[in-house]
Amino acid sequence: MTAVLTPATTRPAPPSALAIGLARTGLELRLFVRDPAQVVFSFAYPIVMLVIFASVFAGEDRPGGVPFAQYFLAGIAATGIMLTSFQAVGTALAEERERGDLARLQVIGTPPLGYFLGKAGQVLVTTVLQLAVLLTVAATVYDVSLPTGVGRWLTFAWVVLLGAVAGTVLGTAVASAGSSRAVGNGISAFAVVLQFFSGVFFVFSELPSWMQEVAAVFPLKWLVQGMRSVFLPDAAAAAEPAGSWEHGTTALVLAAWVVVGLVVCARTFRWRRTA
User: Fold this and answer.
1) Cα dihedral sign, 27-30-35-38
2) Which parts pass through the membrane (predicted)?
3) C-alpha separations of 211 from 113, 193, 194, 274 in Å
């Protein structure tokens, strides 16, 4: 009697980190929308800041005769990117670890890269929507002239992309620094100080030289400068400390912070709370 051989049952290959990242991007966006406080803060904060400062300094010009609302738009756009990436990701990740959410993801086999790609995808989508709303308000309410050339919009695209990715990896990196409360408070305080140092609220070239030197170490200064190169006329570059927009340096510094953040994440990321 001949034995009948049945083919061995094969398990389907597990989804790739990219596929998991795309799926988690959708999940992260749904969780974002279900949190009214986060939605309001992400979209309202830049607009409220623009309304306040444009109203207080109405009629005042900045270097080159640039209206204040137009000059300030660059800084508040950069700040919005920092808040939706660095601050939001760092705070959320620390809270998720503390609640045990990350531990459950580890149990079901979620790769760290897939988790990170989900966070990054959510940040990029949220950032694009936030900037679209902010630019619409600036153009319609305050008559801010938006760029018309393709080159400026391309600059806008790579500055936003590098800034958002840098903020996301750095937020992920600092989330392991302590409890969710400590991380949240620390990020908020650091973000406020960095905004003043980086020329968000003031003309950067008019700040004390030591402030400029400190700010140049961190990515926000270069993110704001990159945004100024998009929204301000070419003649305004003369008011920069280097007398130019320094696009090459901006790209290098932001990319360097992405690398630094990834290295720190690889060494410090953990799914569970430490004792």
Assistant:
1) positive
2) 39-59, 71-94, 123-142, 154-175, 182-204, 251-269
3) 36, 11, 10, 36
Concatenating the DSSP letter of every residue in 158-183 gives: HHHHHHHHHHHHHHHHHGGGS-HHHH
User: In 142-246, which residue ranges form alpha helices assigned H by DSSP?
Assistant: 150-174, 180-197, 209-215, 219-231
CA-wise closest residue to 197 among 44, 78, 57: 78
For residue 4, pLDDT over 60 is answered with no
Sequence letter at residue 77: A
Give pTM, 2 decimals.
0.90
Q: What is the pLDDT of residues 79-115, one digit of tens each?
A: 999 999 999 999 999 999 999 999 998 898 899 999 9
Q: What's the whole-number mean pLDDT along residues 20-45?
A: 91
Which of 132, 140, 123 has the alpha carbon at shortest distance from 51? 140
Dist CA 133 CA 156 (whole Å): 15
Backbone φ and ψ for 7, nearest 5 degrees, come out as -60, 140
Q: What is the mean pLDDT of the chain?
A: 89
d(CA 256, CA 227): 18
For the chain, where are the alpha helices, taking DSSP H only?
Answer: 17-33, 36-56, 68-82, 88-99, 101-107, 112-141, 150-174, 180-197, 209-215, 219-231, 247-268
266-270: list long-range contacts, CB under 8 Å, 24+ apart.
268/173, 268/176, 269/112, 269/172, 269/173, 269/176, 270/97, 270/176
